[in-house]
Amino acid sequence: MGSSSFFLWLLLVFSAISSNVLTVYAFKGTYGVNYGKIADNLPSPSSVVTLLKAAKIKNTRIYDADHEVLKAFKGSGIEIVIGLGNEFLKEMSVGEDRAIDWIKENVQPFLPGTKIVGIAVGNEILGGGDHELWEVLLPSVKNVYGALARLGLTKVVEVSSPHSEAVFTNSFPPSACVFKDDVLVYMKPLLQFFSKIGSPFYINAYPFLAYKSDPEHIDINYALFKSNQGILDSKTNLHYDNMFEAQIDAAYAALEKAGFPKMEVIVSETGWASRGDADEAGASLENARTYNRNLRKRLMKKKGTPYRPKFVAKAYIFALFNENLKPGPTSERNFGLFKPDGSIAYDIGFTGLKDSSASSLIPFKVIGGSSCTLLLTTCITLLLLISAS
């Protein structure tokens, strides 16, 4: 290496070290899961940690900053993105002081034992029905980031905000995707800020919802990663054999047209319902198993998409459990990979914490001491009775 090259290298290193902005990799690997809690029959957070570790799931997202969850995750090594709910945005948009108070209460006390790697500011705001929240999203994001900076946490905790497909005018073919005009007014400055601080674009992408809305024109096999003819995007001449990759590349196309061709896309939610109402096409146990099994295989390959082959596809699956208190159609309460007792809802390669055929075991509880002795004695007695008969 020549002296001039070495000097340039040294300058780049020094610039990176001295810069206040450093990309935080809040998602290591390619597979994560959303841990929703709108239910009255879920196991304790500590049992959830046991389940995630047994399934070797190292990335998770929650939709709040539940202290019981954050305490339970301490020392687990599982990386967690917490949510700053939509109901806080107006308050957060006023100034950094409130954001500092929130972080001091919900983030700082749990670090570094609990690996909080991100804060999702709001959920599916742009494209939603509350336009007042559109106005306060960017100020809230800036204040949360500013608060993290003042507390010295910007190199530990990423700031993001996940979006729904409602931010796009259209997404088919992928190359035709653009942001809605009214959304773009708010989206572009948000993307400019995220680009500045190194945050990716998070999108909730559901082939299930697309198929449910138009089952007559969408091939179910295309939505489920099964063998099919696929589609050809005539503009890019790229072939897609599954909708998941097409939805990701649609987001990349929209970002490129908005002026952000280098921003990474990460899927913050995707999944398939195992049950649904009569008018919810495709909602079935078999389809949920097929989609999630094939998606897991796809993510394990650590490959990019046709339009962005160098950006490895990453996704958080929705959801860890069925949530029996969620409002809306039946499908909303039936996205879980696991049952509340720790058994698998269907087989996609996870074992769960107990045999799914068992029916009366105490969920997640290890029996010990005198209880263990009593259980053993009972079993021996029953065996002796059966032998005698």
Automatic annotation (TrEMBL):
This protein's name: glucan endo-1,3-beta-D-glucosidase
Catalytic activity annotation: Hydrolysis of (1->3)-beta-D-glucosidic linkages in (1->3)-beta-D-glucans
EC number: 3.2.1.39
Signal peptide per UniProt: 1-26
Annotated keywords: Glycosidase, Hydrolase, Membrane, Signal, Transmembrane, Transmembrane helix
Claim: Hydrolase is one of the keywords in the record: yes
PANTHER family linked: GLUCAN ENDO-1,3-BETA-GLUCOSIDASE BG1-RELATED-RELATED
Any GO MF annotation of the entry: glucan endo-1,3-beta-D-glucosidase activity
GO biological process entries: carbohydrate metabolic process
Family, as annotated: Belongs to the glycosyl hydrolase 17 family.
Source species of the chain: Populus deltoides
Transmembrane regions listed in the UniProt entry: 366-386
